[in-house]
Recover the amino acids of this structure.
């Protein structure tokens, strides 16, 4: 029980991860995707907003690899810029949820007693709330503020994280190294953030990997409803929405953004599963 | 059990109160108002409109008045649909959403659970990992991607079903499929995990040792324990179908509550937004309670936690 919560030695970890084919392939796929999205827009001479009305919507060709939309904007370039949005929302909101969840969960787990039951009861109640509704409301009423989007989505996703951290901290605080730290005169704050939190990082990283796709889906969902990024900027969600409007005539406009989003989410999920197995060898081999 | 239910119902009151308060002030501190879009409105007309709806009063007076009405179950008049009350609007739009949700849920259960069971019984064979890979793909396909793709294929290419509107069965198939696929995939994965767990228990081995047929082992002994993860997932699945309906109803132009809610938020129709949020919250809380009660009825051990 106690050993499973400690992160295994790093060498064994990478080795185990590499043996999970889907996760390993996903890792490389994601790395390539991130590199493309970060570097790609600099290499392209076209802008995401550059119109070419004379061109109109054309299918995939040599000059426009994935075709162009009705305004003659190159879909590949728009996908790259959209990918920037999707990935950065995914990362930032995950970091927000990670910080809130880890702090909240470790306080609940470390304090125990009535503090724990009070904090966790709040989480239980929040779980029951229709949070997506609040995210929709926030984005409608406070405009399409980017920072707000991160915070709003992050604030929704921290609940499961806090539960996981709490469970881990609860089992860790019984251990000798915590008692030793206390005897040496460490304050509670120091014990939690110097000794306990680093030890729960394994499960936290795994769960964070699984949070990223769900955040990206939320962003795409909001953009699809017209609440996320605003034109002429693109995100994968808004590209899918634009494509859905004209899919009868120009199906490539919906197929490629859907593929980009779907493949990324799939890869992130595979990677998360693989990381979980690699961090926790007991769970694997099922 | 009665005490449990009473306690949970009592707990709902402060939660609903909190949601109503939070939403009330959230939409009021936001810029813009229900009539700010209508530029042609003369100032006198605007003032008289605001007076009519009580919007000229201080915010706390409006709040107290709204809460008073809410206690009587009155969600107030709509600003954008003159002469209609929010209660009427919800009563008109919700049955459509409920029907759509019901079809989606039925589809999810009837497809997801059997697939998960077969996968568990044939664990680590092709019949296991092929459907499970499919489920993984379906989880990653959000409804707003799946919906248009289904329309493209079944409606435009094959011409089997209608893509927009809400008139006969032909309009029900694609939205329900879109809304239910994600839940079906989750159910399949959870059923598989639950069944695998149960099938390795001692009492299953005992049953097999007694010579109980495989059919009875699965459907009489294993299915009860194997279904608990599904039931505990029903609450979140309901929430997912509820919010999923925002996108699905707008894709398929279904005149339900989900699309209505999003439109009202855009139009700053305060009372409609507020009423819909409270209604959704109540719905979810009640559903969570129902599924918790069922869970305890099936697995009495949970009662002592």
């Amino acid at each position: 029980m106690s050993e499973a919560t400690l992160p295994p030695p790093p060498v064994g970890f990478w080795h185990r991860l590499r043996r999970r084919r889907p996760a390993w392939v996903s890792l490389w796929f994601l790395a390539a995707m991130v590199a493309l999205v970060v570097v790609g827009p600099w290499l392209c001479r076209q802008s995401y907003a550059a119109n070419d009305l004379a061109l109109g919507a054309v299918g995939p060709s040599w000059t426009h690899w994935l075709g162009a939309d009705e305004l003659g904007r190159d879909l590949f370039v728009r996908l790259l810029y959209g990918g920037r949005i999707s990935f950065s929302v995914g990362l930032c909101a995950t970091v927000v949820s990670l910080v809130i969840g880890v702090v909240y969960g470790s306080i609940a787990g470390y304090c125990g007693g009535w503090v724990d039951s009070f904090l966790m009861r709040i989480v239980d109640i929040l779980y029951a709330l229709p949070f997506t509704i609040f995210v929709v409301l926030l984005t409608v009423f406070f405009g399409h503020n980017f920072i707000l989007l991160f915070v709003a989505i992050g604030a929704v996703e921290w609940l499961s994280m806090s539960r996981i951290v709490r469970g881990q901290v609860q089992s860790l605080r019984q251990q000798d190294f915590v008692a030793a730290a206390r005897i040496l005169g460490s304050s509670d704050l120091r014990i939690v953030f110097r000794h306990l939190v680093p030890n729960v990082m394994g499960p936290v990283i795994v769960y964070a990997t699984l949070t990223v796709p769900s955040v990206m889906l939320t962003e795409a969902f909001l953009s699809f409803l017209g609440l996320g990024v605003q034109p002429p900027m693109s995100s994968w969600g808004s590209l899918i929405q634009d494509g859905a409007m004209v899919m009868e005539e120009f199906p490539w406009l919906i197929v490629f953004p859907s593929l980009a989003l779907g493949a990324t989410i799939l890869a992130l999920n595979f990677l998360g599963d693989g990381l979980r197995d690699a961090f926790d060898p007991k769970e694997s081999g099922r | 059990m009665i005490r449990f239910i009473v306690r949970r119902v009592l707990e709902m009151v402060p939660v609903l109160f909190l949601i109503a308060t939070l939403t009330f002030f959230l939409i009021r501190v936001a810029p813009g108002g229900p009539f700010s879009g209508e530029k042609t409105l003369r100032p006198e007309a605007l003032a008289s409109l605001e007076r009519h709806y009580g919007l000229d009063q201080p915010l706390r007076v409006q709040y107290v008045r709204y809460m008073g009405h809410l206690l009587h179950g009155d969600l107030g008049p709509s600003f954008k649909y003159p002469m209609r009350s929010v209660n009427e609007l919800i009563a008109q739009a919700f049955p459509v959403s409920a029907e759509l949700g019901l079809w989606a849920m039925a589809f999810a259960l009837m497809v997801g659970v059997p697939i998960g069971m077969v996968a568990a019984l044939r664990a680590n064979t092709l019949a296991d990992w092929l459907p499970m890979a499919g489920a993984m793909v379906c989880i990653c396909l959000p409804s707003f991607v799946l919906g248009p793709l289904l329309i493209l294929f079944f409606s435009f290419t094959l011409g089997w079903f209608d893509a927009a509107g809400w008139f006969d069965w032909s309009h029900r198939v694609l939205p329900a499929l879109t809304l239910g696929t994600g839940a079906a995939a989750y159910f399949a994965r959870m059923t598989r995990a639950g069944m695998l767990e149960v099938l390795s228990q001692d009492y299953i081995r005992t049953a097999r040792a007694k010579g109980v047929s495989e059919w009875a082992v699965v459907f009489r002994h294993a299915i009860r324990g194997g279904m608990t993860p599904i039931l505990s997932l029903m609450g979140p699945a309901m929430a997912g179908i509820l919010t999923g309906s925002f996108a699905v109803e707008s894709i398929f132009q279904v005149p339900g509550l989900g699309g209505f809610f999003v439109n009202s938020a855009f139009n700053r129709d305060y009372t409609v937004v507020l009423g819909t949020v409270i209604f959704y919250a109540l719905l979810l809380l009640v559903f969570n309670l129902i599924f918790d009660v069922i869970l305890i009825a099936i697995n009495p051990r949970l009662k002592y936690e």
Q: What stands out?
A: The interface with chain B takes residues 125, 128-130, 132-134, 136-138, 140-143, 213, 217, 220-221, 224-225, 237, 240-241, 243-244, 247-248, 251, 254, 258, 261-262, 265-266, 269-270, 286 of chain A (CB under 8 Å). Chain A is about 70% helix and 0% strand. The mean pLDDT of chain A is 77. The first helix of chain A runs from residue 2 to 5.
